[in-house]
Fold this protein.
Amino acid sequence: MDALTIHEAAETTGWSPRMLRYVESMGLIESNRSPAGYRLYGPEQLQRLRTLRELLNAYDVGLAEMGFALRLRREPDLAAAVDAWFEAKPQRPDDVPAADWLRFEQEKHQRLLEAALS
């Protein structure tokens, strides 16, 4: 099989070796491996890299966004949670008076921040 090393693929595609490893770690492409474990890029991978760059440019999205889009396709529970969030309408809890809703939400955010920082 004809294949390029990661450095040759980087030179050919304009992606750096580091970015090629990152793109692969996100699951956006899969490289073949040599018997010694080195990444090898054939025509399939080069085509995927080219069309990935075209897609990123055409829709002004980044690799992280593409990685998330892939997760949405692979993780049905995540996709359902995201869809539910988009469809959800903000609703004041029944036990919180309308005049206190802002303070209630601020306090919830503050507790979340404190928990994240501790």
